[in-house]
Request: fold
Amino acid sequence: MDLRTHAHDGDRLAQACREAGLKATPQRLAVLKALLISHEHPGPEAVFRQVRGELSSISLATVYKTLDALEGAGLVERVTPLSEGRRYDANRTPHHHLVCTACGRIEDHEDPTLAPILPVDLGGFLARAVRVEVLGSCAGCRRQEQ
Ligand SMILES: [Zn+2]
Ligand SMILES: [Zn+2]
Reply:
């Protein structure tokens, strides 16, 4: 089930938190919603800017703690950090990432040809998932390079 289609349904998000073993606090619901709506794989500062409009009392430290809790519960994932900083993803459907090494933009990419038939036994290691991180230049940066 893709929670992103329910991003604006507070009851559904609260239920998802409880099912993941988390109390559904206003902070967690606001941060989860921000991640579900965004397709930018935001970092904590970007999430903070987003949720501050809704929860004016929230602090950046609380956003960090909330992201840790959501990640620990499996509701969001941390995108493999390429350089400095953390980036988060609430898209739980299997997908790859196109990472721009110039501006840091991370786009979702669904391409079945980038993943072999799974699960597959790799000499005793059972492979269940493959995530490909494609490094390069995004369309916007390429335009600026020209
Ligand atoms: Zn770029
Ligand atoms: Zn993603």
